[in-house]
Hints:
Chain A is mostly beta strands. Chain A is built from no helices and eleven strands. In chain B, a hairpin with a 4-residue loop joins strand 7 and strand 8.
Amino acid sequence: EAGVAQSPRYKIIEKRQSVAFWCNPISGHATLYWYQQILGQGPKLLIQFQNNGVVDDSQLPKDRFSAERLKGVDSTLKIQPAKLEDSAVYLCASSSGVTASSYNEQFFGPGTRLTVL
Amino acid sequence: SQKIEQNSEALNIQEGKTATLTCNYTNYSPAYLQWYRQDPGRGPVFLLLIRENEKEKRKERLKVTFDTTLKQSLFHITASQPADSATYLCALDVGNFNKFYFGSGTKLNVKP
């Protein structure tokens, strides 16, 4: 079974520039998550999709971050414009859960390391 | 405020000993809790899940306990090996359709 794919693996940009990350979840997984992990901290949930609908985006800085999951499969996360504090690893995860009591594990991709200069 | 706390200091133990990691939380009533392992430069990998009505869960050398009264989960690795060296993260179900909050993780160093 193929895992969660993410690209690019690394990205370096100047502040105020834009950047986009791509995620391809495990085939058939209904739920997709984007997390931000700052060095030395745990993953922080940014947005959660169930199929192609947003379940939770309460911690997404909507003035600069946006995400979409077209057709309920691949997803992109965009930052525009980037700030220095956006430097982090952006992790995508998927799970097969379709109900609130599915108790499903999350499968994570390798992440994209973003450096904002 | 809502918190999930893991010991931020690294845990250093000798090979063969039992490692015990702690996850404490406040202001949540999770239906279940998960533990993940994260190696440098990689995404977290799922290890174990324990539900609120389960006191203990085991998988090979791993054991997890869940005390909803104390609001605490303990994660044990018995007969630890240098290959167990990694950061271990706890994740709480925060009751909204498989939404999770993670702790900051504890780094485990197992010395030969």
